[in-house]
């Protein structure tokens, strides 16, 4: 379903809960603290994750479909993901671009929750899965960044003979002369 499907009850319920939680937080915080908070619309999550994921993985950009898939899985896995992502994105906006390891190391001592969220984002993009054990969800196989390092010499591991999704290629033309010769050789 699309993000704005009017019949998506779960999506509407999730948005209602997000806005309710935001309203409760708004009422609970002192007015001075609110001046520093960037209140974001729910639909800016994908651009935030694209920026944050690109920074944390050292990429200029990540494929939009992959970002959307990772986002849905992380939201399902961690109910506070959107909140963590918002804070991470804001914090990383001022971080030096080539200093990912130091930034993440500093998060460990300053905010263990944000550190865990940052590692979950990196893990999702690199492994193509979110969660562990029986609760793990595959979000990308061929697009997993872990395969990039050896892409020139390694075939992506698979139980199929050719490569993942090899069956989506156009089948061979049975009338082609080479196919006819192979048929004759079998007889």
UniProtKB/TrEMBL annotation:
InterPro entries: FAD-SLDH_ssu. This is Membrane bound FAD containing D-sorbitol dehydrogenase. It comes from Burkholderia stabilis.
